[in-house]
Amino acid sequence: LTENQCQKEGREGTRNNTKRCNLRERISKYMDRAENIKKYLDQEKEDGKYHKQIKIEENATGFSYESLFREYLNETVTEVWIEDPYIRHTHQLYNFLRFCEMLIKRPCKVKTIHLLTSLDEGSEQVQQSRGLKEIEESLRSHGVLLEVQYSSSIHDREIRFNNGWMIKIGRGLDYFKKPQSRFSLGYCDFDLRPCHETTVDIFHKKHTKNI
């Protein structure tokens, strides 16, 4: 190599080293920032101040129970509380059943589900009681206890996990629209099912209260 070539390669090496140093410094800053954000969110959760809101637009898709809740479900979830006044009609019972199916899948290790709902005062009261009884028996065969209580004054809709997460859905579990037909997309896969407009508020508290 000539002297000029050596000097040129030396300058390029210096520039490359400088670029690498700058890149490492930027990455380090991003990592520190991410860690600080994580610490802030963890503290917000610890203080019970965490709040996230999701707006589901009219006819929006992609909001199955799995898509909406999976971020908050892990192996620490062993107990769940559901307050929803409208687990009455057939489609609402199926919604509750789908929600329970999600809970018994991994990574959850749910052992107890508490449901507080209202009692249907019409002709479908027998169907409501029978449907919830069948769900209870099915869950029992999977080692999960379902405790059902009724309230005539319940209005709020709320879901709580014993890992501290609390989810409030404006329409409760009944935010899906009726499918166009039994053979239309979205009849089975609820990620493809259009939704009613509603709001989802997500909180985290250090302790959850019993119903």
UniProtKB/TrEMBL annotation:
One of its GO terms (cellular component) is midbody. CDD domains: MIT_C. Residues 62-204 form the MITD1 C-terminal phospholipase D-like domain. InterPro entries: MIT_dom_sf, MIT_domain_contain_protein1, MITD1_C, MITD1_C_sf. SUPFAM superfamilies: MIT domain (SSF116846). GO terms for biological process: midbody abscission. This is Microtubule interacting and trafficking domain containing 1. The gene is MITD1.
